[in-house]
Design a protein that fits this description.
The chain contains seven helices and eight strands, in the order βααβαβαββαβαββα. The chain has 195 residues and is an alpha/beta fold. It folds into two domains: 112 residues, Glutaredoxin; 51 residues, 2-Layer Sandwich (Antioxidant, Horf6, Chain A, domain 2). The longest helix has 17 residues.
Length: 195
Amino acid sequence: MLFSHPADFTPVCTTEFIAFARAYERFGALGCELLGLSVDSTYSHIAWVRNIEEKFGVAIPFPIIEDLSMQVAHDYGMIQPGASDTSAVRATFLIDPEGKVRAMVYYPMTNGRSVEEFLRLLEALQTSDAHGVSTPEGWCPGDKVIVPPPATQQDAAARAKAGYEYTDWYFAKTDLRRAGAKAPGKDGRRGRAKR
């Protein structure tokens, strides 16, 4: 997860870094590395991280990229004209092991991110990948998942009797244990999707 912040030594950014640090082990348990970025210098990052530990008692366990040239910030669209021409907005990118950006979330400079939401989103993406399903709004581990819509008329007709929580031919839910055995995976076969 690559996330930018407008500037070191700012209150909203400090709250976010504290929250990311407190959730660091939870991200790690999901196989996710954290990487911060701002257009501040390495020395500013060092001083700010030391300040957070001294004033708030929280050690920042992940690296922060120095981007004085703003090259990375420009490449990832973190500089938003109208918000600021010299600071990165609160952009967050979930990047998979193959280097593909799977999710991009932008927050205004005045409002902090929800770290819990990024943990939820990460688990939802991993669940979708592993089981070939989708997740509904607000999905959390243990909730029912959405079975992919049928691809043929015959499958659509059979959907009502497939044993899912059925609303209509295109909308059916199931619990994850059943989805792992029945939902079509990304490779087009029944069962778990290939990763």
